[in-house]
UniProtKB/TrEMBL annotation:
<feature type="domain" description="GST C-terminal">
    <location>
        <begin position="171"/>
        <end position="295"/>
    </location>
</feature>
<protein>
    <submittedName>
        <fullName>Glutathione-dependent reductase</fullName>
    </submittedName>
</protein>
<feature type="site" description="Lowers pKa of active site Cys">
    <location>
        <position position="252"/>
    </location>
</feature>
<dbReference type="InterPro" id="IPR040079">
    <property type="entry name" value="Glutathione_S-Trfase"/>
</dbReference>
<feature type="binding site">
    <location>
        <begin position="129"/>
        <end position="132"/>
    </location>
    <ligand>
        <name>glutathione</name>
    </ligand>
</feature>
<dbReference type="InterPro" id="IPR047047">
    <property type="entry name" value="GST_Omega-like_C"/>
</dbReference>
<dbReference type="InterPro" id="IPR036249">
    <property type="entry name" value="Thioredoxin-like_sf"/>
</dbReference>
<dbReference type="InterPro" id="IPR016639">
    <property type="entry name" value="GST_Omega/GSH"/>
</dbReference>
<dbReference type="Pfam" id="PF13410">
    <property type="entry name" value="GST_C_2"/>
</dbReference>
<feature type="binding site">
    <location>
        <begin position="147"/>
        <end position="148"/>
    </location>
    <ligand>
        <name>glutathione</name>
    </ligand>
</feature>
<feature type="active site" description="Nucleophile">
    <location>
        <position position="63"/>
    </location>
</feature>
<feature type="site" description="Lowers pKa of active site Cys">
    <location>
        <position position="295"/>
    </location>
</feature>
<dbReference type="InterPro" id="IPR036282">
    <property type="entry name" value="Glutathione-S-Trfase_C_sf"/>
</dbReference>
<feature type="binding site">
    <location>
        <position position="96"/>
    </location>
    <ligand>
        <name>glutathione</name>
    </ligand>
</feature>
<dbReference type="InterPro" id="IPR004045">
    <property type="entry name" value="Glutathione_S-Trfase_N"/>
</dbReference>
<feature type="active site" description="Proton donor/acceptor">
    <location>
        <position position="194"/>
    </location>
</feature>
<dbReference type="Pfam" id="PF13409">
    <property type="entry name" value="GST_N_2"/>
</dbReference>
Amino acid sequence: MGLLVDGVWHDQWYDTSDSGGRFVRSKSQFRNWVTADGSAGPSGEDGFKAEPGRYHLYVSYACPWAHRTLIFRVLKKLEDAISVSVVDHYMGEEGWTLYGRDGGTGDHLYGAQRLHEIYTRADPKYSGRVTVPVLWDKQRQTIVSNESAEIIRMLNSAFNEFGDASLDFYPEELRTEIDELNDFVYPNINNGVYRAGFATTQEAYEEAFNQLFSALDQIEERLSRQRYLAGDRLTEADWRLFTTLLRFDPVYVGHFKCNRQRIADYPNLSNYLRDLYQVPDVAGTVNMHHIKAHYYGSHKTINPTGIIPLGPEIDYGAPHDRNRFAAKAA
Ligand SMILES: N[C@@H](CCC(=O)N[C@@H](CS)C(=O)NCC(=O)O)C(=O)O
């Protein structure tokens, strides 16, 4: 793993020396928006109009942030409109690679072997981390966005002419509530597992661990009253939580030491997780081999042997009890 400095690759692990052992995720730098009419969107410049065949996603099956974009792509029926390249699961000294190994697809556009080549193609002087997902514009040959939270909003609403316009995971009337849920789930749960796992002091680990499980306890209680996070309608907030819950028992419990209890030990969260997994087409976006092989194999500071545990066996397709609550279409 590493980063680009003025367009030059440096192999370097996260530096936690200035933050008391705390992992601090850096901000995504490409923040343009694809919009239906090509106007600028909430940030960035204009000129990125939604058109079929124009945009491409670079994703990792392992990564929870990239996984969100794959889910929105299939749910919004955008498979034909937006193409995808999948990086290899192993992230080593070259960062994310596109050798096309073991389920990785290679780079369909330029035959690049390392994702950092895509970043320098967009900006030869780029400085920063080279992360997935990336939304690439084939026409202007640049990165539109490398921020998953914003890419899923684009997929939700900009491409309605080419996908399923009937589904809306960020409906007007629920936006305030969804934003509040995201503001709670992101630091404590989505990023909380990383803050626990990448901590390099006991204090930083315990702080993240306690916040994580206190947040999961609160979500468990919420889900004892209603089917989804924002009530009876499936929204963006659920998909953002889903990709973390899915990785929790197979990876975060052991690898990131998030082991007060498993999701399987929470009756509502575990049934909710299966409910979301069983939404049509979602299971096809899940690659558990990439997920386990990536985390256990790539993070050598945490797991120096790179041994990938064989368990646990989890059947996310097993029946769930969430039909006891009302549900409205998204
Ligand atoms: N805020 C970004 C975070 C993306 C991110 O950190 N992705 C990880 C993979 S799970 C990555 O590519 N890490 C490489 C690195 O940090 O060098 C988003 O949500 O899109």
